[in-house]
Design a protein that fits this description.
- There is one protein chain.
- The strands form 3 sheets. This protein has a two-stranded antiparallel ribbon with strand order 1-2. A two-stranded antiparallel ribbon has the order 3-4. Strands 5-6 form a two-stranded parallel ribbon.
- The chain has a domain of 50 residues.
- The protein is α+β, with helices and mostly antiparallel strands.
- Helices cover 11% and strands 19% of the residues.
- The model has no long low-confidence stretch (mean pLDDT 82).
- The structure holds zinc ion (ZN).
- The site of zinc ion (ZN) has 8 residues, from loops.
Length: 73
């Protein structure tokens, strides 16, 4: 098994660990209802993605799907 010949310095170790950061989530406004949505995800409020219904949101006011490839969540 390959083993490291020399131990890394504290500086080198800490420089490696300094690159571990949390990324800010990319938020967009839904084109249909205007609520905040995560990019590349269907809207939680209206279920729209890329201009068409991607999923049916179960709520009091039931929405009728127009797309054939509707996935119920
Ligand atoms: Zn929406």
């Amino acid at each position: 098994m390959a083993n490291p010949k020399r131990r890394h310095s504290r500086s080198r170790r800490d420089k490696r660990r300094a690159n571990w950061k949390l990324k800010e989530k990319a938020f967009l406004n839904c084109t249909q209802c205007g609520s905040l949505v995560i990019s590349h995800r269907a809207c939680n409020k209206c279920g729209f993605y890329n201009g068409e219904i991607a999923m049916i949101i179960k709520s009091k006011d039931k929405k009728v799907s127009t797309s054939s490839s509707v996935q119920e969540v």
